Amino acid sequence: MKFATKAVHAGVEPDPSTGAIMTPIFQTSTYVQAAPGDHKGYEYSRTHNPTRTALQKALAALENGKHGLCFATGMASIDAVVKLLKPGDEVVSTNDLYGGTYRLFTKVFEPFGVKFKFVDMADAANVAAAITPRTKLVWVETPTNPTLRIVDIAAIAKLTKGKDILLAVDNTFASPYLQNPLDLGADLVMHSVTKFLGGHSDVVMGALIMNDDTLLERLAFLQNSCGATPGPQDCFLVLRGLKTLHLRLERHCTNGRAVAEFLAKHPKVGKVYWPGLPSHPNHEVAKRQMRDFGGMMSFTIKGDRMEDAMHFLRTCKLFSLAESLGGVESLMGHPASMTHASIPREERERTGVTDSLIRLSVGVEDADDLIADLAKALG
Ligand code: P1T
Question: Could you tell me the distance, in angstroms and rounded to a whole number, from the CA of residue 101 to the centre of ligand 1?
């Protein structure tokens, strides 16, 4: 089945008791059993809920995976993956990384004895050099947040295959419409469902998708034992959002191209980070592993001054200043003071998160209006 058909239909069956075409919101904590253990597959909603089951199936189908698991937030899904490890294990991670993931790794799990190495994964040789016999997880984010670097997933998979190393890819920025890491050799895909999958800035949720049955068993155990599961209302909203994922992403991509090309030509703009530009250092890898380049981008203002960034952020009107991304409305953010504030200055500047860096989540509005808004704020 092709992507658009899966986006509309995957995971969803008419409700057997009523024929309702939309999966109902099963707003229940528990399920009646005829006798102990005699039930219809559902015992308690932390463990299973039919609305969540439908969503998990839909997400698995969109990522060409066998199994999906949903979590209360994107962070809760990453937390579950790291809990597969034990003290002494090592993780190799992208050095340009969502600040919350960096915080979880270094502030929560490092004190428990898990060791993290952050390397520039644009060159797979850096990953090869960081892997030791203790490495148990390679954590990739691509495109990276916020400087949109591209990591060659297939090249990293060659390094982990056949070893006892799990390769996980945070696919939040791409969405399954643009990239399917399992097809490229990853073992596990993670999403902040909050973003493109939900698509309407009204839900916070996370997901993991995989093929391996044993991995599912271990992660489902953690999902149930630790208990960070989403409620049925949120699952319903994401099921609804998924039905237009392909349509939204098509527009994110065309608007993204228009905005990136406008910024690249603007005399006041310094660097533009968008993987669709031929000048992007990883453009060739992006062309190979992504179907298109999306609506996420970052840029700097020439001179790289904080006050110029602040002026820009105050002047833009259609782009709202807010954390998050991937909704139908355009958003902008200032990573150095917002999403990446938890990363030490020296470390963030090394990866390009400088004072004037501005991140855009280009929405699905009319591109002419978005460009006029940016032109005014830059002027
Ligand atoms: O916010 P939450 O749903 O818990 O997801 C965390 C997360 C994980 N991975 C990536 C790549 C992300 O971008 C995020 C969340 N990011 C933002 C809120 C942001 O504005 O970048």
Answer: 8
Which residue, judged by its Cα, is nearest atom 20 of ligand 1? 324
What are the extents of the domains in the chain?
3-242, 247-378
Predicted confidence at residue 347, as pLDDT, reads 83
Other beta carbons within 10 angstroms of residue 321's beta carbon come to: 14
Q: Among 241, 214, 208, 222, which Cα is nearest to 73's?
A: 208
- Nearest residue to 377 (alpha-carbon basis) of 339, 321, 336: 321
Q: What is the distance between the alpha carbons of residues 379 and 262, in angstroms, rounded to a whole number?
A: 13
Annotated active-site positions, please? 46, 98, 170, 195
Is 311's pLDDT higher than 90? yes
Q: Is the CB of residue 207 less than 8 Å from the CB of residue 193?
A: yes
Output the CA 21–ligand 1 centroid distance in Å: 32
* pLDDT tens track for 180-211: 999 999 999 999 999 999 999 999 999 999 99
For ligand 1, what atom is nearest to the CA of residue 325? Answer: 20
Superfamily of 247-378 according to CATH: Aspartate Aminotransferase, domain 1 (3.90.1150.10)
Fold adopted by 3-242: Aspartate Aminotransferase; domain 2 (3.40.640)
Rounded to 5 degrees, what angle do the CA atoms 208, 226, 50 make? 60
What is the DSSP secondary structure assignment for residue 112, as one 8-state letter? G
Q: Which two tokens stand for residue 242?
A: 């998924």
Render 41-62 in DSSP notation, one character per residue.
Answer: S-SBTTT--HHHHHHHHHHHHH
CB 293 within 8 A of CB 257: yes
The closest residue, in CA terms, to atom 3 on ligand 1 is 74
Q: Is the shortest distance between the CB of 207 and ligand 1 below 6 Å?
A: no
At 372 the three-state DSSP class reads helix
Max alpha carbon distance in the chain (Å)? 73
Q: Hey, which of 97, 108, 195, 348 would you mutate to test ligand 1's pocket, going by the most ligand atoms within 8 Å of its Cβ?
A: 195
